[in-house]
């Protein structure tokens, strides 16, 4: 991803996220008992059951929590409200397993974390220059239940289970793969 490379070349006080680890978090679960896996997967299937595969657009650069106090540099992810809907439904449904409801969802890919404010102006200049950038579009046809293990070298992500988002036929049945 060219914009990631451009940000990394700036040699700022940012800790870049490995491009292979870029992802959209629909719902953060935290420490989770493995015995809940089947129930979580069932909920994932339920909340995506009426969703067809869709396109997500990676665009617009920004920061969290604010331009005055930068902790994260991100690229936005737009999906005409589909990811927001899935996240909202996951939030609601996972309450039944004891997970707290999170406030709002902002689809994004975390590109980097700010280590110090010394390069803030340089970073803000790049962000302002990329506020309306369109990086790419990509099909979304699955969501994953992920496990992350934090290490001194950064997180290690593992896919626990993939839930496909299948094309629906007119009668509401899943179409068979050819």
Summarize the SSE layout with pairings.
Layout: H1 2-9, E1 14-16, H2 37-48, E2 54-65, E3 70-78, H3 82-94, E4 108-114, H4 120-129, E5 134-140, E6 142-151, E7 154-164
Antiparallel strand pairs: 1-4, 2-3, 2-5, 3-4, 6-7
Helix pairs in contact: 2-3
Describe this structure in words.
There is one protein chain. With 178 residues, the protein is α+β, with helices and mostly antiparallel strands. It has a single domain, classed as Cyclic Phosphodiesterase, Chain: A. 24% of the residues lie in helices and 33% in strands. The chain has four helices and seven strands. The strands form two sheets. The protein has a five-stranded antiparallel β-sheet. A two-stranded antiparallel ribbon has the order 6-7. Helix 2 runs antiparallel to helix 3.
Summarize the structure.
The protein is α+β, with helices and mostly antiparallel strands and 178 residues long. The protein is 24% helix and 33% strand. The strands form 2 sheets. The chain has a 5-stranded antiparallel β-sheet. A two-stranded antiparallel sheet has the order 6-7.
């Amino acid at each position: 991803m060219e914009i990631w490379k451009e940000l990394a070349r700036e040699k700022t006080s940012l800790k870049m996220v490995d491009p292979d680890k870029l992802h959209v978090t629909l719902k953060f679960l935290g420490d989770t008992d493995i015995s809940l896996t089947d129930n979580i997967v069932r909920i994932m299937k339920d909340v995506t059951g009426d969703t067809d595969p869709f396109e997500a657009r990676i665009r617009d650069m920004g920061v969290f929590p604010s331009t005055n106090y930068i902790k994260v540099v991100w690229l936005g992810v737009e999906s005409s409200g589909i990811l927001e809907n899935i996240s909202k439904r996951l939030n609601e449904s996972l309450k039944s397993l004891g997970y707290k409801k999170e406030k709002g969802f902002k689809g994004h890919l975390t590109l980097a974390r700010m280590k110090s404010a010394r390069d803030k102006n340089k970073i803000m200049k790049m962000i302002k220059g990329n506020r309306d950038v369109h990086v790419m579009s990509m099909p979304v046809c699955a969501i994953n239940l992920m496990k992350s293990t934090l290490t001194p070298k950064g997180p290690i992500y593992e896919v626990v289970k993939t839930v496909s988002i299948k094309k629906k036929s007119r009668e509401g049945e899943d179409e068979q793969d050819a």
